Every structure is written in structure tokens, then in C-alpha cells.
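Agenda item 2: nicotinamide-adenine-dinucleotide complex prediction
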Amino acid sequence: MTGRLLGKSAIVVGAGQTPGETIGNGHATALLFAREGARVLCVDRVAERAEATAAEIIGAGGQAHARTADVSRAADCAAIVQAGLERWEAIDILVNNVGIGGGDAPAHRLEEDAWDRILAVNLKGMWMTIKAVLPHMRERGHGSIVNVSSLAGRAGGIQLAYEVSKAGVNRLTTSVATSNARHGIRCNAVAPGLMDTPMAVSGIAHASGRTTTEVREERDRRVPLGGKMGTAWDTAHAVLFLASDEASFITGAILPVDGGMGVRIG
Ligand SMILES: NC(=O)c1ccc[n+]([C@@H]2O[C@H](COP(=O)([O-])OP(=O)(O)OC[C@H]3O[C@@H](n4cnc5c(N)ncnc54)[C@H](O)[C@@H]3O)[C@@H](O)[C@H]2O)c1
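Presented output:
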């Protein structure tokens, strides 16, 4: 531990992960934050997932607490912030990692309920956790919010609702950054590209009837930098930087974590 978040209290929403062979973005972020000295409220819709991450942190000597919440419910978002304040009196960092994509499709095939569900969780949910934490951060004149967006917010074509939700996350990020800069609150986003997380690799393998090895090889081939997907640790380190005081003059940034995919021509 090098103490980059020493003394900070953080909420990581989506701190569990889809079960699988590798580690998820929010799970890795929560572990890394704790290693760097933060107290972490691990929030997830699935209780066992939040509890597993918190237990891992505590087992390694860190400070964590688990909380179950569904970000598509405003009352749950308010309760997350309340829980953080009751436990640690202050919230320095909010990480919004929740993102879903099941049932997505291109525009001509997408079902209305899938659109509604994906937008409610990925975009409205992020806004609601931010809305819940802002009064506290404004009162303190200090706070750092990091949203997990996606390269899909800029490019894609086959997952309409997910892409639109992540484009929305980008503008949510810049809008919150602008309207809260005077209050000492920073709001940034990371935009991962192809990452080797279970939600992506096992999820695609399951949906397409391929093995995880086949999906991994196909995704690796598409990445310019080293011909290999990133890992959740790449996402987590970018989130850590933006959340920490090292980024104290950075707000409204959308940081690509994509091995050069976003700037590739052709
Ligand atoms: N894996 C990739 O290739 C990739 C690429 C770009 C962006 N991302 C983004 O990274 C983030 C995390 O991805 P991951 O692959 O680690 O996923 P993951 O599914 O492993 O982790 C997300 C967690 O969020 C939880 N969650 C889902 N709905 C929730 C809700 N309504 N309320 C509270 N918690 C909820 C899940 O239970 C899960 O534990 C997402 O925002 C995703 O869009 C991932």
C-alpha cells in the first residue's frame, strides 16, 4: 500500500462482479482503493457480491462495509449515501461502476423494455447516486466522483441502448463537472474498451454459444496495444488516479482505457 487514498471514505457502486474466471472492474476498484488506504462501502444489487468484496478487503487488513442497493431505485441511492455517512461521517469519493447490457440489440430489433431497463440502470441510476451525494459534497466543499463509461459511448452500432446510455454518462459527467466545480467537486469518467471481465467474456460466450477462449482470442485480436484486452486492474488504476488528489486539477475528463481502440483509423 502506498496510501494514495489514505484517510478517504469511498463508495463503490457495483463493487461486486459477475462470477467468472477473471475479476470485474468494480471489484478490482474496491480492492485497489482499500489497498491505497480508503474505507470502502461496497455496494451491489446482489448482496453476496457486495459482501464477498467487503470480506476480501477486511481479510486483507483493509476497511470495508457491504450494502445492498439497486441503483434504479431513488430510495436505494439515497440510502447508500446515508449508510456511508452513518458509518464514516464523510464521503470523499463516489465511484459509479454499474453497467448492464443484457437484451440489447440494434435499433430495428431492440425491445422497449430492454431500452427502458438499460437506460434506467446505466444512466438514470448514475445520476441518482450523484444527486444523492451532491448535497453532502457541496456542504463540505470537496468530493470526487468517477463514472465508469465505455468506448461504446463514442462508437459501436450493435448495442443501441448500452451505447446511448454510455454517451449519456459522458454528458452526465461533463455537466456535473461544470455545475459543481465552484463547489470543489470533481466529476470524471473512465471509458474502458475491450476488457477481460466475466461480464464481457463469459456473457458474450454464453449469448453466442462460443467458448470463453474463442471469445477472448477474437477480442484480443481487435486491440491495437499488444493485441490483448485490458483487465479490470487497468480500469481500476485509471479510476484510482481520477479519484485521488493527484488529479486535483482534473474535472470533466473522459479518460479512455482502451489500448488505442478509440484512436485507431480504419
Ligand atoms: N467489461 C468490459 O469490457 C467493459 C468495457 C467498457 C465498459 N465497461 C463497464 O464497466 C462496468 C463494470 O463492468 P464489469 O464487466 O466489471 O461488470 P460486472 O457485471 O462484473 O460488475 C457490475 C456489478 O454491478 C452490479 N449491478 C448490476 N445492476 C445493478 C443495479 N441495478 N444496482 C446495483 N448494482 C448493480 C452487478 O451485480 C455486478 O456485481 C460497467 O459500467 C460496464 O459498462 C465494461
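Discussion summary: Residues 112-140 form the longest helix (29 residues).
Owner for follow-up: CH.
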